[in-house]
Amino acid sequence: MERKVFVKVFGIVCFITEGEWVERKSQGRPGNANWKCWRILCSAELLKRGIIAALAPRNAPSFDVLATHDGRTVKIRVKTKSEENPGWHFLAKKDGKVFRDISQDDDFVILVNLSMDVKNLEFYIIPTNEVNTWLEEDFKRWVESPGKNGRPHDPNNKVRKLNVVEYQERLRKYLNNWDILWQ
Q: In the chain, what are the domains?
């Protein structure tokens, strides 16, 4: 019988099997070794602020966390990256869309910049429509620009990237801006 490993994140204990821990750690992902806790990071931050937060079942198609406060409920999609990674990676679905079922006013992406110092994690709370627009515009520019040796980029590529340095100015107003969820 495989042992369970307990990892504490913001005072919340996450359970994973020893095999999962070893596998993720061996892939050089120290900031994301406990891959089952990524949604819990955001939920813990919301709970610290007195907001009710519930995790969606794994692989829910449209959101990771539901949060409610003062009669308003929002859907939250969570994306993480490690300190070493220059940006967040998204995968487009078969239809080319990154996000399913985008709602206009109650749908957010929280981009988490993971670090080994969990007291200083960076959370960017952004309306999903905004992130979707950024990803679509960037992908269009990428497809239209020449690739290596002047070859065209593949318009069927499913990878979408949001680079921290490139979006530093746009991201700034969303850094730890938890109040945007309730405006």
A: 4-182 (3.40.1350.10)
